[in-house]
Aminotransferase class V domain-containing protein (Heliorestis acidaminivorans), 487 residues
Amino acid sequence: MSKFKYKFQMYKNLQASLPAIYGEAKKAADEIGIPTEIRGKFGLTGAISGCPAPLRKDIVEASEKAGQEVVPLAKYVDEIRELVKDVYGEEYDAAPTSTCEAALWVTFDCLFTPPNLGRGDNYRARYIAPYEKHLHHQGAYGRPFPAKYKDIFADRGTTAGELGFYGKRQNNLDAVIVPLEGAKYDVHGIKYHPVPLLSQVDTEASLKRIEEVAAQQAESLTGFTSLGYDTVGYGYSQRDEEGTPFLQKGIAKIAKKYNVPYVIDNAWGIPFAGTDIAKTGADIFVYAMDKATGAATSGLIIGKEDVMVPIRRAMGMHGDRFGTTASYGKAAYVTFDPGKEALATQVQALKVLRDKPEIVTKPVDDLERIVREEFNNLHPTLKKGIVITKSYNSTAVEVNYEGTWKDGMGLPIFSIEDMYAGSNIFQTGMAQMGVIPTVAYDGNIFISPGLGTTDEDGQLNEELARYAIRALVRLLEIVGRHVGIIE
């Protein structure tokens, strides 16, 4: 039972307790025995853009080889196209970009925004985005609708205003935000803000609600978007026998009914061995190839050939004006050029995922075992509210702790605003222990291998991974004591 009457009081106390929590965290790192020489050099995930994992040996070699060769860049793009078609079929195509955010930007501008050319006044367009995690990516390219969501992104990121996330908004485009049925959007955090809690999402009821909103917006509707993840904490626990989330399949059907594209943001996901675009029925998947896939920093767009044509044109990859099958030239989004070495690493990473996916999936199996073993030692009061899920799509193990709030106050839930403000203790506290943190907001912790926990072939070093997980478990208990939910 928490010692606080209201949750805002708990977060106020946490803020005042930061020095004590940090002191206990540093002491715990010594008790766990984390070697001094590795502190600050390993962590809970290698899939964050701000601190990416070291590249595998084969990826480095592909980059170095490309750097010494004379090869037209269109050749690398065509290799990527061939690999995509090998796995997904003739009707799919691809376009590499510099980042996943670049992939979203060019895709939304090509498929969702109204045309700028032509006589007469321009019309407004709207795309539908479920109210889910990471909404400042897939849901931030239009002005939020309804108006109550106009400040939903608040101080998100490092720069506010038109030079921050708000500056991504595209010409005459609105983002219609639709809450998911069964989800909770309670306010939490030291930087108090609504958080999407999605472990209890009702897929059937959510799809019904999305379709109702689509009917209301039909006159100006130009597309749908969502995440491409497959875990409980992201709201995708209801899946078919092949593991494809029903929510994604359902949105794809609604999009087809309205003859508009469905774009899935699978930034922290992998092609081929992850969520299958063909099985979802979506038109476009976008990836951060430097996250779970392990290529150099870059993005990748995979989609049905017809919707890929304007995207490839915008990237200058769809052929020269005098008629060629491919090109690598100047176009509207030449600023999103990924470059030669990144292209070569994408080719290599995709070959591995096509031919030897176990190189990427085995470390996930090993990590899941360690997470379950270490979390088995967690205080019983906390353990009963934890749900652990393995995801090959994200090459990650998800620890969702929404359930600790089932019978009253539970483990603090930090908002994404806390992450950007530096007040998410489950991230800043890990840093005090010498462990580089992972995404740990909205009641959800995503853990993956790679950041100093794998060898040059990408395989897990169990001892180092266990240090990181053990530190996380201890931090959860330290914070749990400070909020009074455990003794």
